[in-house]
């Protein structure tokens, strides 16, 4: 079967998979090969649900032929944002 992955740039990537046996981890590997995004950084969504169990199959999540899966990036666990409000004040926001 074929699924469509919507990338971060808004592009579409068609992947040929076997829904009954293809795991989420395998799909992430296919996306990495095409988009050069590390598997650990990928988050896949289908029908409003995060496909967070890499060992589950696409069928476990209800993904069927021509389904659209959305790709998002996982934030690094130790990411910080620094916002300068004025010349004297800098605020630090943790993403944890």
UniProtKB/TrEMBL annotation:
| Protein name, as recorded | Ubiquitin-like domain-containing protein
Record keywords = Isopeptide bond
Q: Which InterPro entries match?
A: Ubiquitin-like_dom, Ubiquitin-like_domsf, Ubiquitin_ubiquitin-like
Q: Which stretches are transmembrane? A: none
Ubiquitin-like domain sequence ranges = 1-78
State whether keyword Ligase applies.
Answer: no
Q: Which GO terms describe its molecular function?
A: mRNA binding
Annotated signal sequence is: none
């Amino acid at each position: 079967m074929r699924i469509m992955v919507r990338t971060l740039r808004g592009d579409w990537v068609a992947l040929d998979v076997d829904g009954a046996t293809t795991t989420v981890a395998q799909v992430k590997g296919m996306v990495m090969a095409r988009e050069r995004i590390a598997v650990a950084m990928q988050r896949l969504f289908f029908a409003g649900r995060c496909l967070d169990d890499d060992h589950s199959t696409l069928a476990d999540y209800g993904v069927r032929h021509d389904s659209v899966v959305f790709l998002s990036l996982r934030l690094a666990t130790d990411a910080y944002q620094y916002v300068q409000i004025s010349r004297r004040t800098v605020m630090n926001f943790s993403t944890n």
